[in-house]
Design brief:
Blueprint (H helix, E strand, L loop, with lengths): L9 E5 L3 H13 L3 E5 L2 H11 L4 E4 L8 H9 L6 E5 L4 H10 L3 E4 L4 H14 L11 E2 L4 E4 L4 E4 L2 E4 L2 H12 L4 E3 H8 L7 H15 L9 E4 L3 E4 L5
Parallel strand pairs: 1-2, 1-3, 3-4, 4-5
Antiparallel strand pairs: 6-7, 7-8, 8-9, 10-12, 11-12
Helix pairs in contact: 1-5, 2-3, 6-8
Length: about 240
């Protein structure tokens, strides 16, 4: 069997088949997760904008209007939310595309409920076992809030736009607030298909600090841990 998840880990299941939604929801709730469901990619994005980011999403591939891959591309514009593809499509090229570009795992229907829950737990543990469920607007402290779906930071009451890279970078750091995130982890998550170097990461860290820090030369939020990585120094309220 698998270990029980930490309290309040939230899973979003996206599938246009209501029977599949019921089965997956039941399996994950029995494993101790909090589960919400959406019948389309558009519906899922609306839920994220309204309620905030889940810890992980299970996503079907073939859905009307917005495919699973299209949903994943939208989410990657503002976050690094872990995704597992859960679909009947089992062609080799599709599985490879899903794993290389979007997903931490790829599960082919029909599935075993206990194996599904175990794979969800394994992905969450591999993703540093994120502590925080991020709301639609996450309050860091009295001067900084972040709305990841809108790619915005609110700094001293002023809205500051974030690029997709800045938003993903900040997302990872905030979700791991208080813990060191290694440089290698950041490079692999932000540029998974590229051979990115540390200098590229440093440039985006510098730009992000200029947007959210009171003094980017003396940062209080994003702290460099020499030779290791970075740590977000303030835990969300």
């Amino acid at each position: 069997m698998f270990d029980s998840p930490p309290e309040s880990q939230r899973i979003l299941v996206v599938d246009d088949n209501t029977y599949t939604l019921r089965i997956v929801k039941h399996a994950l709730e029995m494993a101790g997760y909090e589960v919400t469901t959406a019948i389309s990619g558009e519906d899922a994005l609306k839920m994220i904008h309204r309620y905030g980011m889940p810890h992980l999403a299970l996503v079907d591939l073939h859905m009307p209007m917005m495919s699973g891959f299209e949903f994943c591309r939208e989410v990657r514009e503002f976050s690094d939310m872990p995704i597992i593809m859960l679909t009947a499509v089992n062609t080799e090229e599709t599985i490879i595309e899903g794993l290389e570009k979007y997903a931490e795992d790829y599960i082919v229907k029909p599935f075993n409920s206990e194996e599904l829950a175990a794979r969800v737990g394994r992905v969450l543990r591999r993703m540093s076992d994120y502590n925080y469920t991020l709301e639609s607007t996450t309050r860091i402290d009295e001067r900084l809030q972040v709305n990841f779906p809108n790619r915005e930071a609110i700094v001293d009451g002023e809205i500051v736009s974030l690029t997709p890279t800045e938003s993903k970078l900040l997302y990872i750091l905030v979700r791991n607030a208080g813990r060191i995130v290694t440089t290698d982890f950041l490079l692999n998550r932000i540029w998974p298909m590229q051979d990115a170097q540390e200098d590229r990461l440093h440039v985006h860290i510098h730009r992000l600090r200029r947007k959210i820090e009171t003094d980017h030369n003396e940062p209080t939020y994003i702290i460099a841990e020499r030779g290791t990585g970075y740590r977000f120094n303030v835990k969300p309220k």
